[in-house]
Amino acid sequence: MSEPQSIYLSDYRPPAYRVTHTELSFDLDPMATRVKARLHVERHPERAAGEPLELDGEQLTLKSIAIDGQPLGDDEYVLTERGLRVDGVPERFLLDTDVEIAPKDNTALEGLYQSGGMFCTQCEAEGFRRITFYPDRPDVMATFSTTVVGRSDREPVLLSNGNPVERGELPDGRHFVTWEDPHPKPCYLFALVAGDLQKVEDRFTTAGGREVTLQIWVEEENLGKTDHAMASLKRAMRWDEETYGREYDLDLFMIVAVNDFNMGAMENKGLNIFNSAAVLTHPHTATDAAFQRVEGIVAHEYFHNWSGNRVTCRDWFQLSLKEGFTVFRDQSFSADTNSAPVKRIEEVSFFRTAQFAEDAGPTAHPVRPDHYIEIGNFYTLTIYEKGAEIVRMLRNLVGWEAFRRGSDLYFSRFDGQAVTIEDFVACMAEASGQDLDQFMRWYSQAGTPEIDAHGEYDYANGAYRLVLRQRTPATPGQPDKQPLHIPIRLGLVGTKSGRDLTLTLDGEYLGQDGVIHLREEEQEFLFTDVEEAPVPSLARGFSAPIKLHFPYSREDLAFLQTHDSDGFNRWDAGQRLALLALDDLIAAHRNGVEKVMDSRVVEAFRSLLNTATDDKAVLAEMLTLPSEAYIAEQQPLVDVDAIHAARTFVKQSLAIALRDDFLRVYHENVSEAPYAPEPEQIGARSLKNVALSYLVSIEDEEGVELARRQFEADHNMTDVRQALTLLVHSSRDDLADPALRAFGEKWAHDPLVMDQWFSIQVSRPQADALERVKFLMDHPAFSLTNPNKVRALIGAFAQNRINFHRLDGEGYKLLADVVIELNRLNPEIASRLVTPLTRWRRFDEPRQELMKGELERIRAEKLSPNVYEVIEKALA
Ligand code: PHE
Ligand code: ZN
User: Fold this and answer.
1) Residue limits of the Peptidase M1 alanyl aminopeptidase C-terminal domain (predicted)?
2) Is the CB of residue 763 less than 8 Å from the CB of residue 796?
3) CA–CA separation, 265 and 442 (whole Å)
């Protein structure tokens, strides 16, 4: 096979031929499924006559091919590794193909595959070409009619997109169902599911009066785990009507849970397929975080019905058109149904850790990339989360009302079409009358902008001068960057009054919480009529995906942590304060000097623990120290051991100093009420469990006993998992080992709980974590072909910073071994799993060498395009 080639956005052309209607018939068999396709093909009006018909197709065995009923001889078409070409086709014709595929051998989980005993599909981005020969690109949209034939005993349930229109029995114990989907769609939204499934059913009446049947299909043992997903679905449907005026457009909406799935879930038209981890919940098996994740993903996939399906992407460079917008929509939904400030804190802490790292590494790419080798590598935090931040900025720039008008315009103008990011932004510009030309650079420029800010108060004139300077670091292929249009929401907090002062800029009154627009490389903002000396509170709510540096003193930060009217920035001030203290301790550790705890941090925590609050979830976040990964992000060169030692020191110092406060907060938040995944309960549980983590970190006898009892009480998985994690991550193996054993035996039958059991063990800081990984890879519940298991065991270990980065290189070696194996089995998972190694340049010399050595060892293999692309970038 030749070296994988790049595809360029600038090469885009409409397809030579389009398909208006697609008829499929599947005769299911694990080793020899037959797929017959009849495509209604016509020349694209913008393309010249006489061009060859080129169809994508991979791993298909062609049995026959005919045009307008005339079979083609072997010399009338050309078959390659990538597809099929036919010269001299008419302007408009019927193409019939018949192919054979082997779903049972499909470990890549793209196309038609088997998960347990059931058949299912995953077509985004380019999986449909593994089902039949087709123009596998999103700008070819057709109506689909699909007949599925299966064995009545083994596959009593046969599902596809749209509505069932016919069903019947066939000889030899087989049966069939025909499905029709009236909405034209690209083939990446095609889906088929067949197996022995049970359903839970509900109904929803749309605002327009359509009666919709809602079904969640699961294996029988999971019937008791669908309530939360169903309730979330109904909430999401109502929310999209009320917030965006979007209604559902079919009589049936189905969700199916499958155990083997590469991602979270997939928005196939009318038939969403979910990783079981993203849909199944039960108080005894799923944590609060899992409940919230399920709600968010159910909503996300549902919202795609408009932002993605009715209006889709012209080409895969536009992926963020549907993903950025849909993530923004699901984030807004979750903020409306949960504690909004805590949602934002969670989003941003994740974003600043993981997306910033991506944007600063060798795979950095713009939200709209201009070239790629394998699109599967571009389902990234940049496309999804940074894309959502851009949409959020747009919403804030034009205001909600204009944004909603722009959204309405977008959906009505482009309904049934495959469009571009420009089309979306143009609707926002048109609806708001704003010029968004400079703003578009957010889509084409990679890297995280860094803003250096400083300001001074002019006592004589009562003015505050704020100077902002922006700079986006070079990223691969983009050495020079242009200034972006960056909205900075801010307040000036009076140091005497502790209140937001009024903002007057160039004679214009901005209120007490205003937005300034940074467009130049350097810009000065002069606020007048500022009555007292302020501390600026900048980029409130994380108003742009930037790194903002301001020379705050620790006193400033302690002040903002108590007085900022913006909840997000109150939290952020605490994080900045902790980071300054951590910096000192990291330096102390490196220099071998005694570590001394900053008393300002202790006092800040003491006051948090002793101030009444009505949002316990936010308080829990404020009591949580920046993660090792986030601390690492702030360092020019990552010193894994110093970071771990410094953070542990801060945590334990706080626990020692505030032991009684933590104990009290724990007891105040214990509740016997029946579990409900509701904001108030979730907040109390997080607060209690954060307090417990401090107590167990110093192995306080009473704290350890509380953890043991919390585990034994077995009230809900959130509490059980936290207690077990704390014990396993402490040195109390006398308590941890029996607890782990009991938990493992109790849940041996439940794969989603076993995933948690794996993760808890391999993320422990003790030196035996790596040995545990190796041991657990032979556990009967582990499997390399199940992505959830790989993530739970190998992925979780790679996040275990001190053990993955062991100086003997064994952690790196283990990851590389698994990547090499997965490169053959499941390239998409392999190329994601290798990510931590690609960040080698961030570490010290010895680790750099070790990591690079493993990347080179991987490079010597015969690589899938997925892994090839990532490794080449990492070593470039
Ligand atoms: N489009 C899916 C989503 O974001 C993600 C996905 C991509 C799933 C590729 C499978 C394969 O909702
Ligand atoms: Zn999505």
Assistant:
1) 555-876
2) yes
3) 27
β pairing state of 174-185 and 163-170: antiparallel
Which phi and psi angles does 518 have, rounded to 5°? -90, 120
* pLDDT at 1 > cutoff 80: no
Q: How far apart are CA 876 and CA 362, in angstroms?
A: 8
pLDDT tens track for 420-471: 999 999 999 999 999 999 999 999 999 999 999 999 999 999 999 999 999 9
Query: How far apart (Å, rounded) are the C-alpha atoms in residues 266 and 255?
Result: 10
In a 13 Å sphere around the CA of 723, the CA atoms on its Cβ side amount to 24
> From CA 288, how far away is CA 55, in angstroms rounded?
46
Q: Convert the pLDDT of each residue in 601-621 to its tens digit.
A: 999 999 999 999 989 999 999
3-class state of residue 562 by DSSP: helix
Residue with CA closest to ligand 1 atom 8: 266
Q: How many residues does the chain have?
A: 876
Of ligand 1's listed atoms, the one at least distance from the Cα of 379 is: 7
Active site residue 301: yes
Q: Are 153 and 174 in contact (CB under 8 A)?
A: no
Residue 469 backbone phi and psi in degrees, to 5? -130, 130
Please name the helix (run of DSSP H) or strand (run of DSSP E) that holds residue 396, with its range, or none. Answer: helix 387-398
* CA-closest candidate to residue 659, choices 630, 622, 696, 707: 696
Residue tagged active-site, from 124, 301, 374, 385:
301
Best mutation site among 267, 325, 383 for ligand 1 pocket (most ligand atoms within 8 Å of CB): 267
pLDDT tens-digit map of 373-430: 999 999 999 999 999 999 999 999 999 999 999 999 999 999 999 999 999 999 999 9
Angle at 327 between CA 323 and CA 333, to 5 degrees: 145
Q: Positive or negative CA dihedral for 826, 828, 831, 832?
A: negative
The pTM (predicted TM-score) of the whole model is: 0.99
In which element (H, E) is residue 615 found?
Answer: none
* 703 vs 697: CA distance, rounded Å: 9
Report the separation in Å between the CA atom of 594 and the middle of ligand 1, taken as the mean of its atom positions. 50
Domains assigned to the chain: 1-196 (2.60.40.1730), 311-443 (1.10.390.10), 450-551 (2.60.40.1840), 558-698 (1.25.50.10), 749-875 (1.25.50.10)
Which residue puts its alpha carbon closest to atom 3 of ligand 1? 266
